[in-house]
Write a structure and sequence with these properties.
Blueprint: H1 9-20, H2 24-37, E1 42-48, E2 54-59, H3 66-71, H4 99-105, E3 108-114, E4 121-127, E5 130-137, E6 142-148, H5 155-158, H6 164-181, E7 186-191, E8 194-198, H7 205-213, H8 215-219, E9 221-228, E10 231-238, E11 250-254, E12 257-259, H9 262-271, E13 284-289, E14 295-296, E15 307-308, H10 311-327, E16 333-338, H11 339-345, H12 350-355, E17 363-366, E18 392-393, E19 441-447, E20 451-456, E21 459-464, H13 465-479, E22 486-495, H14 499-507, H15 509-514, E23 518-522, E24 526-533, H16 541-554, H17 560-572, H18 582-593, E25 607-611, H19 612-618
Parallel strand pairs: 1-7, 11-13
Antiparallel strand pairs: 1-2, 2-6, 3-4, 3-6, 4-5, 7-8, 9-10, 10-13, 11-12, 14-15, 16-17, 16-18, 19-20, 20-21, 21-25, 22-24, 23-24
Helix pairs in contact: 1-4, 2-6, 6-7, 6-14, 9-10, 13-17, 16-17
Length: 623
């Protein structure tokens, strides 16, 4: 009896479809890339039921002839590749001829298409990879793909789908990535009848960035540009002061294709070395352009990963472009908006905006940081952005450093009596009990506004004030058990976490509430933060939530509570570089000297001790 079975073509197609169509967002990406390859200038994406119920992509591209409309659903049928030499320099988004076959194998698809020179179009209906109907039809130039009931015939895959909100958000993110990569194409995304974003297609990367990422994120960006041995880099990177808690806001494009690349990510983050706080990540929208023959995109079924013929050239181009942008950072930014972009993004208010223009020229210059700007009228307003050459620093007077009294300061604390019971280390082992009669502790001062210097008997203590205070707050929060108090924010903060982070917040809502956060969803994309733990600095709210989401994504469930408490403690603690009251420094030093604080919540030591004998040896007083 034969052991090896030859699978039927239909079953083989369904298995192969799993490599290309991982979830509804994969369908959005593939259909959008097909529209771009067809030369579309305007594309609309419509979603319903998280994309599992309906995905419709409408474009005004070249369309297809009747014969091509029937053949496009066959596996390895493509108009973009003719022989093996074409693989050496791929210039189109698609080339394998697998996407439509894979999509149609696991869903119900309708195609409506017409070329400009044809008098009538073609309608095709496909279910489970089999053509059900094909006939002439009237339609405008271009193509409409309607995909319904994804994975209806593969329940094993369907049961692994997440909630409609999570899948819908992922679809929107995939559409946004494609739109960011091609700012010359206008992309409109509508989910469940509500417009998620609209890019004007004016060819300016800044316009797409503002429309998709939003005003707050875009205002923190710096223009980046450079070239190295045939590798050109343009785009934007975030200011070091606007670091984020995860890498979710890093977008890399190679020849217009959205990719994931550890090499580009490493080049980006290396440029921020010594300028970005530990645990924070830069955001970017970077476009890498090089010869198609110098990059291989045929390394992954989803085409999200590529290989470069010279990794070093590409790494250096990104690194030095980003480094140049950071070194040139200064001032606030003025932004020029063209009339055409204003009209596309603000059709209802264009007349009023034009009347308010300070001059009658083609460009309007305004500072989007100005609270009275007409573009601040609606928090949901989409603001177009400038060309890199038009980003310029506003002339201003010398920088003024606020007095110490205006710096953010954590909640004050007071030292308690010396503990007589053995302290516990992070490993659970008993630490040596402090002496009943301890030598007096003298505060010497502070080094570099970071390290406390104290003297006790014949030893010198060097204490990391942030790490020590962080541990103290962490222990206090843990001791409260389930009774962590909240502080209501005077002005609630709105945050757009992204689809993956939104799913994490939803799954861990009870835990976050227990630990003092009060979060409220606002639509499918935004979260309103109304309260935070009482020990935390409200100014660190978004940064803390970003870091918490990253920890919850990668950490074990039983460690989730401690991970959140670690982040809250870190954001609440005294920071290196702050001016700190002498009494607070002394209180921390006393707790460290008493053995109550030995390691920060992340496991780093909080104190280094030098004895008089060690110092005498360093100075040659003794051998």
């Amino acid at each position: 009896m034969a052991v090896i079975n030859i699978l039927s073509p239909h079953l083989a197609d369904m298995i192969a479809a799993g490599e290309v169509v991982e979830r509804p967002g994969s369908v959005v990406k593939e259909l959008l890339e097909n529209a771009l390859d067809a030369g579309a200038r305007n594309v609309t994406v419509e979603l319903a039921g998280g994309g599992t119920t309906l995905i419709r992509v409408t474009d005004d591209g070249c369309g297809m002839a009747a014969d091509d409309a029937g053949n496009c659903f066959l596996r390895h049928a493509t108009s973009k590749l003719h022989d093996e030499r074409g693989l050496e320099a791929i210039e189109t988004m698609g080339f394998r001829g697998e996407a439509l076959a894979a999509i149609s194998a696991v869903s119900r698809v309708e195609l409506l298409t017409r070329r400009e020179q044809d008098g009538e179009g073609t309608y095709v209906s496909v279910t489970g990879g089999e053509i059900q109907q094909m006939r002439p039809a009237g339609c405008p130039k271009g193509t409409v793909f309607t995909v319904r009931d994804i994975f209806y015939n593969t329940p094993a895959r369907l049961k692994f789908m997440k909630s409609d909100r999570a899948e819908g958000s992922w679809c929107v993110q995939q559409a946004a990535r494609v739109a960011l990569g091609r700012p010359d194409v206008s992309v409109r995304c509508v989910k469940d009848g509500r417009e998620e974003f609209f890019t004007p297609g004016d060819g300016r990367a800044e316009s797409a960035m503002y429309a998709i990422l939003g005003r707050a994120a875009a205002l923190s960006m710096l223009p980046a540009e450079g070239e190295n041995e045939g590798v050109a880099v343009t785009g934007f990177v975030s200011s070091p002061a606007a670091g984020r808690g995860s890498r979710a806001m890093q977008f890399f494009f190679v020849n217009g294709r959205s990719i994931r690349s550890q090499s580009l990510q490493a080049a980006l983050e290396q440029a921020y070395k010594n300028t970005l706080m530990v645990g924070r990540f830069p955001a970017c929208v970077l476009y890498v352009t090089l010869s198609p023959g110098a990059v291989d995109v045929n390394v992954h079924p989803t085409k999200n990963e590529v290989k470069f013929s010279s990794e070093k050239r590409v790494f250096d181009a990104v690194y030095y472009s980003v480094l140049s942008a950071l070194q040139g950072e200064r001032g606030t930014l003025e932004m020029d908006l063209s009339r055409s972009t204003e009209k596309k993004l603000f059709p209802a208010g264009y007349g009023r905006l034009a009347a308010d223009r300070p001059d009658a020229g083609e460009q309007t210059a305004m500072d989007l940081r100005t609270p009275g700007s007409v573009y601040n009228a609606s928090p949901a307003a989409v603001v177009s952005a400038p060309r890199p050459a038009q980003l310029r620093p506003r002339q201003s007077g010398p920088a003024i450093t606020p007095p110490a009294s205006y710096r953010p300061r954590p909640q004050p604390f007071h030292p308690g009596p010396a503990r007589q019971t053995p302290a516990r280390s992070d490993t659970g082992q008993a630490a040596p009990a402090p002496q009943a009669q301890q030598a007096p502790l003298r505060l010497v001062g502070e080094l570099l506004r970071t390290y406390i210097v104290a003297e006790q008997a014949d030893r010198v203590l060097l204490i990391d004030k942030h790490a020590a205070h962080e541990r103290m707050i962490f222990d206090r929060l843990k001791a409260r058990g389930r009774q962590i108090m909240s502080q209501t924010l005077l002005v609630p903060q709105t945050w757009r976490p992204g689809p993956e982070a939104m799913e994490i917040l939803t799954a861990n809502g009870a835990l976050l509430t227990e630990l003092g956060f009060e979060l409220e969803s606002c639509g499918d994309e935004d979260v309103i933060v109304r309260a935070v733990p009482d020990a935390m600095d409200p100014g660190q709210t978004v940064a803390a939530l970003e870091e918490i989401c990253e920890k919850l994504r990668t950490g074990a469930a039983d460690l989730a509570r401690d991970s959140v408490l670690q982040t809250v403690a870190c954001k609440a603690a005294i920071k290196a570089g702050w001016d700190t009251d002498q009494a607070e420094l002394l209180a921390l030093a006393e707790k460290v000297a008493a053995g109550e604080i030995r390691y920060c919540p992340h496991g780093r030591p909080v104190c280094v001790t030098l004895t008089k004998k060690e110092l005498d040896r360093q100075f040659g007083r003794i051998k």
